[in-house]
Write a structure and sequence with these properties.
Layout: E1 7-12, H1 18-27, E2 31-36, H2 39-51, E3 56-60, H3 66-80, E4 85-89, H4 103-131, E5 135-142, H5 153-173, E6 178-185, H6 205-216, E7 227-230
Parallel strand pairs: 1-2, 1-4, 2-3, 4-5, 5-6, 6-7
């Protein structure tokens, strides 16, 4: 399979789609280590992945803290002996519009998103450069949509910044054979049941995970510095 024998690091947090991403990478043949700050979430994810027969381990570590990221990456090297793929799905997506979002919540979202994405990408890139065989880094930015179709201002702000970061990192890391891409998605509440693909509905976790897996794998060897939008045409109908 496309990801067979790859070693993947997935940093996730909160209610993001990282469990689906970890499962999709593992189903593709990769060995996966997941780093998430909530110990209960880590145990639950590891149990679910193990029940599915996946070669995956989950570590309770905070992606915002560089030393904890380094420790989790060290565990990946110990277990699988390499690092080929790094994914950061760290979107803190507080609901709130310009008129109603408070300063502290906005600042916390920026820290959780941008600082964590930077830290994960930097630590992973350093390992990939040192090992000398390239790799793939995929960032995930989610503009949360609530049941009324209202988007998260903080999520949109972080997503825009991550697009610029992605291009800058891709340019810097390209000579080392490391690709960097971004998946921008819109998930959130939706009216059930959902038809297979109506224009204007939020994306499902599995759909986002499929996009991440494509960018992480060798079939996207020609793609770097790009943003792949996964929103089922939500932008097109607004």
């Amino acid at each position: 399979m496309d990801l067979k024998d790859k070693a993947a690091f997935v940093a996730g947090g909160g209610d993001g789609v990282w469990p689906a991403i970890a499962r999709r990478l593992a189903d593709g043949g990769a060995g996966v280590v997941v780093c998430t700050p909530d110990e209960q979430q880590a145990r639950q994810a590891e149990a679910e992945l193990g029940a599915a027969g996946a070669a995956a381990y989950c570590i309770a570590a905070d992606p915002v803290r560089p030393r904890e990221v380094e420790a989790a990456l060290g565990e990946l090297l110990r277990v699988f002996g390499d690092l080929d793929i790094a994914v950061a799905d760290l979107t803190a997506r507080p609901a709130g519009t310009l008129l109603h979002l408070d300063d502290a919540t906005f600042d916390a979202a920026l820290s959780a998103d941008l600082r964590a994405a930077f830290g994960v990408a930097q630590r992973a890139a350093r390992l990939m450069v040192a090992r000398g065989h390239g790799g793939s880094i995929v960032l995930v930015a989610d503009s949360l949509v609530d049941a009324d179709g209202v988007r998260s201002l903080a999520g949109d702000a972080c997503g825009g910044a991550l697009e610029r970061m992605t291009r800058a990192m891709a340019q810097e890391l390209g000579p080392h054979g490391i690709r960097v891409n971004l998946v921008r998605c819109q998930t959130g509440a939706a009216h059930e049941p959902l038809p297979p693909f109506p224009l204007g509905r939020p994306a499902r976790p599995g759909e986002v995970a499929a996009a991440v897996a494509f960018l992480a794998g060798d079939r996207a060897a020609y793609v770097s510095g790009s943003t792949l939008v996964v929103d089922c045409g939500l932008e097109a109908v607004r």
